[in-house]
Amino acid sequence: MSTSGLNATPPPLGIFGEYGVTIHTGAIQSGDFAQIHNAGFKWIRTDLFWTWVEATPGIFDFATFDRLAANFPVNDLRPIVILDYSNALYATVGDMTTANSDRFRAAYAAFSAASVAHYAGRGFIWEQWNEPNNSSAWPPAPDSAAYVALMKQACIEIRKKYPQEIIIGPASSGIDLPFIEACLRGGMLDYWSAISVHPYRHTDPATASADYAKLRALIAQYAAPGRTVPIISGEWGYTTAWAGFDDAKQADYLSRMFKLNKQENISLTIWYDWRDDGDDPTNMEHRFGLVRRSPARTFDPKSAYLAARQELLGIPPSNVLINVKTVVPVP
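Above: the chain sequence. Below: its structure as tokens.
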């Protein structure tokens, strides 16, 4: 039974076996959305930073994100929008212990509700924070009770007016069963339509099968009778900066991961990430991309991009002609 007090069951996710990529707004280049679509992806995952939206208390300005969001329907893409992180108007940024207050919770809930109100009905999925079980995202240390209290208040504000909008969480770093269980024990299945996790690993993607089985068993303990709660693989990639990885192995592991998640009935799989984030080949964050960084703003796909097209569209990597505007199969 719902503990939300709103007498509403979370709406069904309604997504089955689809794929997308993570984007970073500052790294998006002209034509990127078309190339994402041309690879067969249907989704992008990106941040809606609280600090972008609310620079003055109580005034919400979506102009920055509106410019990004205008590209989604034009390119037949839907977004997972992450409602994150802290805001210096209400707490000390970099110290989430200062955010554990009624004032902060009310402000975050207001930001979340205003965001949903602005984009309601457009098919967005709303994700609550990113990797809150990681100290880099919830400094100085994760606090599942504080996370649940914060997200529950935001969910209640959203569902008062927009009960059919999809909310997911907790976007955990790894498949962190103790943290996820704390969320489920705290009643978050009254609000979330799916559980999102980031199953990163250096090993073969097939090793995630056992973790998925444990997660499903955990969800079943807390889900209402007869309810099946989908799993979203919200971030998962392989960087060529890791020892033993190169472009060919990254592409191979992408193919294996996509196949595994299909076999495991994962509702939505998001590859991390779209574009290499920097120029240091030894920095792991700089080498997760499907395409290379290009100061000339040209489209430079890696083997993993071509592997994605093959998995999602059935086009062999050897049969594509690529230019900056489009990707066309060679007759």
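Confidence is low (pLDDT under 50) at residues 1-5, 321-331.
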